[in-house]
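Item description
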Amino acid sequence: MKRLILTIVGVVMLTLFFGCEKEPIVITPMYRFYTESTTLHQVTLDSITHFTNRFSAYVVKFPKSRDDEYFDPTMNNLRYAASKYGCTVIDDQTSISISTEEKGEFTVSTLQQSGR
C-alpha cells in the first residue's frame, strides 16, 4: 500500500513538474533593445541619442526586425523618453531620428537602408 501511494505521488509530481513548465524567453537583439528601452525615461537625452543610434543601425541592417513583437513597444518607450525632453521620434522607414521644434530637426542616425 505504501509503495502504491509513493508511486502515485511520484507520477503526480512529475506530471505537475512537466505540465507547469513555462516557455523560455528567447533573448534576441530586439528583446535586449526592448528591455533597455524600458529605462530610457530615466536617462539623459545623450543616452537616448546613443540608444537611438544603435537601435536605428540594427533596424537598418535587419529590416525584418520591424516585424518583431518587440519593435513597437521599443518605439513607444523611445517616443515616451524623447518626449520628456520635448523631442519627437521620427521613423521614416529608412532611419529613426529625433526632432525638436525649438532647435529644428537633427538626425540622430544617418544610416540609410541600402538597395542591396
